[in-house]
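User: Quick one: structure for sequence A, then sequence B.

Assistant: Sequence A:
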Amino acid sequence: MMHAPSNKRTAAENGDGGIDVVLMRSLGNGEDLGPIVRYAFECGKPEALLHQLRNVVRKKEVEIEELCKLHYDEFILAVDELRGVLVDAYDLKSSLSSENLRLQEVASALLLKLDELLELYLIKKNVTEAIQTLKVCVQVSKLCLACNMHVANNRFYPALKILDLIEKDYLQNTPLKALRKVIDKQIPAIKLHIEKKVCSEFNDWLLHIRSIAKEIGQLAIGQAASARQGDEEKRAHQREAEEQSRSGVNPVYALDCEHIDEDSVLEFDLAPLYRSHHIHTCLGIQEKFCEYYYNNRLNQLNLDLQISSALPFLESHQPFFAQIAGFFIVEAQVLRTSRGLLSESQVESLWDSAMSKMKSVLEDQFSHTNTANHLLLIKDFVTLFGATLLRHGYQVTPLLEVLDNSRDKYHELLLSECRKQIGDILASDTFEQMVIKKEYEYNMNVVSFHLQSSDTVPAFPFIAPFSSSVPDACRVVRSFIEDSVSYLSYGGHINFYDVLKKYLDKLMIDVLNEALLSMIHTGNLGVSQAMQIAANIAVLEHTCDLFLWQAAQLCSVPLHLVERPHAGLTAKAVFKASQNAAYNALLNVVDSKLDEYLALMNSINWTADEAPEHANDYIHEIVIYLDLLISTAQQILPLDALYKVGVGALHHISDSIVATFLSESLKRFNLNAIIGIDNDLKMLEAFADERFQSTGLSDLKRDCIFRDCLVESRQLVNLLLSNQPDDFVDPVIREKDYGALDYKKVATICEKLKDSPDRLFGSLSNRNAKQNSRKKSMDTLKRRLKDFS
């Protein structure tokens, strides 16, 4: 038990040997002992570490003692030398004290002189500072004087530069406090005075620029109008060249060297604005001025956008749009040339506000405008306004959309005016062939509308195949095309040919054709008038291609596109149908007149005792009328129409003759009456053959000639005069000789055929075998027809 502590200490010493080695190595290398100390405390052995440190200290003390023992002799020698040096130092001190006393005695007089010198240097320094102060004050005073002169002469920018110079370089360095205080107080006052003065000048400029904005806008719009006129003249020359090339003439080209410098005309003074902006920038209140400028210009714009109620819009629209154009031309120039005064977003905001108001004004005014020309005048000026502002970078599409939206209304008004004009033209027309006595009349009424049949100028007086309403109507149509192109041009649509074609068709069909049909159906027309209307419609049908060609030229559409199949006007086919209506109306008039002559058949003795040797009186009247009719038609109508008139008239005569036999008023007739009708038909057939040849209708190579139109009445008469009328029931003979007859009609007519009244026993004595055979054949036919019924 007594050896236990000893064993523990030995174990501890053995266990801590590692710490001792590490500790010594760290001390030898001059390393930090912190990690070793931290390790000892973490292991719970601080006492062991402390013990090792004490051992280290004892070891170091031993080393120091050994080192001192080793160098003891050298140390003693060093102490002796040091004592010797101390003795020498005391000697030196004594010598220095004596020298110092001697020096003080010598320098006393010099010190008095030095004090006087220092005092003089101090005076010099004060004088120098005073001079510098006066120089600074003089410079500041000169700058203040120059600033006052600049302000008095309205040269604000150099005045502000001087104020800035004083503030930066002189104000803080001014030695006189009173002067510095005065200057410090006056600088803000001067700046405020400059600001007020510049604002006053700027306000005057605002009034001036608004007063001349209308003139600026009018000049700019005038330039746009001149440019448009130049473009139109170039297009006109191009169309003329195309027409010459089309007609085989070599076109002559010319170089147009005329040039207008647009910007040279639009000059207005922005110097006051630039000056105000620059001065406010120098004052450090640029944003305030920019806001002030924008608000004032916005107020001016709102005033400009107000419509004058004292004048009609037709009279006030040009000043209205010119004022707005001038406003935005100025703003475009300001945006382009002044840095930071306006932003693009601000200008766009102003333009959007103006655009909204202008759209509203135009829509309202267009809704109350009832004259096409007024709409066109407003539209033309608005498009010039749009072209002007588009050149200055503004978007005008919404404005053009308003014009496009009023397109239908404009054309409805234009069509209404054309309808009235054409109605007046047709009402004043006598529908007689136009007699042209002078060449200029020929060029004006015929050549200008390509209505001539050849390029050779005819002899005068020249009788045109149309009446005066045709060239007058053509002038209305041409004017309509030009007005329509004027409205559709420079709008939102680049290619408006199809739109123009649609409205042109509407004019030709709904206005011109309807007016002609109204004349045909409701007018109390004579034969020559009906013929002339039919001839006029044929001419108007021919003009459809001309008007479409003119429209294509004005729209700058290549002619090969117009000449394509199915590219023409629908009106051409409508006029074709209207020609048929005119021919039908003509035939109705002719039929009515023929009915007057055919009514004379009632005076025929249908039961005459003897057969007439000549034709009846009514047929002479009919032939005379037909001769006049065909002669008139030959002068007015083309061969096709002449053929239709002749065929229609002869068909009506034939049908009327057959209808007379079927009439209930005719109870009976005999063979002598049939012989008279046969004479009538022979006379009519001879006239038909002669006129068919003399009029040149034989050149048409038609299957049906004039004589063929009388076939029904001729076959009926042939049947009634036939010796074997019962051959009618033979299908072969009927198809060959009586194919135009209807057996029901034949049955009715044959029932009315009676012999002449019998004298007492007379008929028995005079009747021969041939008559008996014919009578039997007729009785057989009547019986067979009854069986068919």
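Sequence B:
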Amino acid sequence: MDDFLDKLPQMDLMRSEKMTLVQLIIPVESAHRCVTYLGELGLLQFRDLNADKSPFQRTFANQVKRCGEMSRKLRFFKDQIDKAGLRCSPRHELEPDIELGDLERQLADHEHEVLEMNSNSEKLRQTYNELLEFKIVLQKANGFLASSNAHATGDETELHEGTYSNNGFIETSSLLEQEMRPEPLNQSGLRFISGIINKDKLLRFERMLFRATRGNMLFNQTPSDEEIMDPSTSEMVEKIVFVVFFSGEQARTKILKICEAFSANCYPVPEDTTKQRQLTREVLSRLSDLEATLHAGTRHRNDALNAVGYRLTKWITTVRREKAVYDTLNMLNFDVTKKCLVGEGWCPTFAKTQIHEVLQRATFDSNSQVGVIFHVMQAVESPPTYFRTNKLTNAFQEIIDAYGVARYQEANPAVYSVVTYPFLFAVMFGDWGHGLCLLLGALYLLARERKLSSQKLGSFMEMLFGGRYVIFLMALFSIYCGLIYNEFFSVPFHIFGGSAYKCRDTTCSDAYTVGLVKYRDPYPFGVDPSWRGSRSELPYLNSLKMKMSILLGIAQMNLGLILSFFNARFFGSSLDIRYQFIPQMIFLNSLFGYLSLLIIIKWCTGSQADLYHVMIYMFLSPTEELGENELFWGQRPLQILLLLMAFIAVPWMLFPKPFALRKIHMERFQGRTYGVLGTSEVDLDVEPDSARGGHQEEEFNFSEIFVHQLIHSIEFVLGSVSNTASYLRLWALSLAHSELSTVFYEKVLLLAWGYENILIRLIGLVVFAFATAFILLMMETLSAFLHALRLHWVEFMGKFFHGDGYKFKPFSFALISDDDE
């Protein structure tokens, strides 16, 4: 048997790749190029030999800091380009690789230039906004002042408000500059302050003015006709022009402080109409000049950003790679005396030749006089787990890894999940109409695979695209199971010939509940369409799907136990084979394997035996005659034998293994044998097939081993019952899916189609389509997906899978993501 198993061809995904711990001794002058070439190859996972040091204590901390600063500048450029709304596609012509120092200088120059232009633009925009507000205030306040002059006395004086404290007045200055300086104020009479404020602050501003002046003021307001850009947020803000009439110097002081607190800008407005017109012309002239200056500055800034944007993608890639290289160099030990770097890492055994060739090429390209020393080390810790997957198997491997990464060289459940996972999904989802809808969605994702893979997708769409081959297989198996169930949106079809049943006489021509008799061979494939609508439809389908669920469950659990045998044999643990695998197989198949045998015999013979009665009285009255429930000769003595075997298997699982481990431990330390204890129960953290655990002398705790075995045995015994019952979810979800489809078809579509009104028919069709799409194709798909996930993670993988390994994460430029910055 062992010779036969050894001659079987090895499966690629059955066990992870063999890994080798290697050591690199790299001269300083060629270290950067060596690590760069290894990053391009992507087959070496470096170990951190400086884990006890902080990031600032490492050799290349300054280089990492420089790369981080350059990344910040590149993100700044990207934000500026996005903010400006530019679309800079990278140039495709070949550009020479730029040195890190030159790139750093270029980025600093570009950043200084852009920051200076942003500062100038912000100042110009602020001045432009002030002049624009002044223009709006001049236009809107004129109406208020005209109304005030019509009712005011001749003693009213004009109040000039500004921000300048210099009272000197130059006759040759422009009228705008004159108006921005306050004139000596008249200490009596009615005065006013005009300005502009954000609309959202207006109510609080007016309330505060009323309280501060105790109502001794007149507040006029009007909305501005145009929105004004806020320089800090670049958003358009709606503002309100106001004019406050008051009397007295004390009121003036209070109003100015309130305006300052609410960020209201005050502008002087002359009462003289001639001065107003002259001031407006000066403001419009300066606005025109500033607008031209702003447009010229914006064009110059966009040209500078475009020049950066053409090379931004290449620069980002260069900086990311350099930072990754220096982060990796920081994981190496720096030997000052020998002027070399010492590194360790894991690589697949098949990649040793490739890595050696890459190191030789790096030594030659760097003109180093000393080559890189590359040699294999003896491993002390468990190697990482690495599976070589393709586009089809990668999604299934990710599903398994979501539960736990396989232990090094442990049997990989993903090999079998490629078939069993979509099949169990289809057992619950079986409807070939719904399967065709899933297939169309999967084919769309596959047809646009090249385009979608190059785009940045949302989280939901990225998940769907990553599982496109899983959806494709689920759709195919759903069509297959739907043909077996003979359901197309819950409607049966005579696809594979006529029904095996017909009416006994003419009285049942319009009924499907009574009078059907079998008159020829059974329907060639799947469920006979005549069962649809019959009185015994539900009992028949329930019986079929429930028994089928048990058969599938027992088959998959047996597969899990068989894989545990191959695991134990691969790791050389004979104790696990003798005291776990054999009694577990006996216990599971003595009870539930026997139940599966009875189901198959009942199907083949057409017996009317009650399997519930057989299994219950197998325990309660094993010696009692079976009577009409006997399915074959010798069934009663076989049941007694299977029951005794099941009872014997429980102590077989519990007692021998802890005592055998204790005996082996005693022999090891008494000098009688020096063999390695090859079992995973002694040291769960050490790989069972290596001698690495022998260096760590740990105290053998017999009570702990015994309790662990007791828990494991009880868990398996109880789990055999609960796991078998858990597979009945296949029956339950399949029944729920079928009944929901029937309800939507009969109570929505057929009911609406019974009316002659075209509008009612259209409404019924729309409701049926939405119910099918959102409930049956989305919610039911998710439900069946999760239940199939549970059956694989718990019922199947729990029989053999430890899942306490860690992934192989090589240093590779292709794996660098945006988050690694």
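The chain has a mean pLDDT of 84. DSSP finds 23 helices and 13 strands in the chain.

User: Thanks, that's what I needed.
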